[in-house]
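Data deposition worksheet. Section B asks for the primary sequence of the deposited chain exactly as it was used as input, without tags or linkers unless they were present during the calculation. Section C holds the resulting structure in token form. Section D is free text for depositor observations; keep each observation to a single sentence. Incomplete worksheets are returned to the depositor.
Section A, Depositor: J.P.
Section B:
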Amino acid sequence: MCTYDAVKGKSWFAAVAETAVESHFYSGELNDGTKDTLIETHLAEIESKAAPVYERLLRGDIPDQSQGRMDFAHFLGLMFSRTRAMRRMAAETRGRTHQGLMDMAAFPFLRYLTRL
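Section C:
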């Protein structure tokens, strides 16, 4: 497959499995400069638990009230929360919450100023 980088203006041949892959997308950097892969590891664990259930679903075999069903629900929830729309909504919610807290903290001071 030919891959093109619009930012760098370069193209190259790459395997399909290696195209559009970003390493350490969810990793943070620790104080010592190494990568914190805790989130990546957790996601891999959830995905590996959901994979056999997904294979069963593709065959039309719907799991009953089992651990597999819960594992797949956990996987779906994580996939939904990883979409751009959900990340944007979470950021907006954090911003509104932060603003609300700032307003609550400032309220007594503003009441004091109106009495002067």
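Section D:
The chain has one domain: 25-115.
The mean pLDDT is 84.
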